[in-house]
Amino acid sequence: MRVALMVTCINDALYPRTGQAVVRLLRRLGVDVDFPESQTCCAQPMVNTGYLDEAVPVVRNFVDSFAGYDGCWRVSGSPPSPALAALPSLRARL
């Protein structure tokens, strides 16, 4: 199984050991972990504040960056991406 790992900006800045522990655990379980270099923001700040039009290019990049994997793991307590949760509202803009 090949998965992409997204370590959020908050987690990366404040709790980097959590992301490292997730990588160790997944690898111990035999999972091939990758970090897409093109990943950037998950669009949570834009979606949470109602800036859906501004979120569109960020969501496109998010989807493109994590396509082609068997799964996407995110080190966060939030949903995989608030932008993906908002997809019904964003679909017309994509």
UniProtKB/TrEMBL annotation:
Domain of life: Bacteria
Example of a GO cellular component annotation carried by this entry: cytosol
InterPro entries: Cys_rich_dom
Single GO MF annotation: oxidoreductase activity
Domain Cysteine-rich: start-end pairs: 3-69
One protein family per Pfam: CCG
Protein name: Cysteine-rich domain-containing protein
Native organism: Acrocarpospora macrocephala
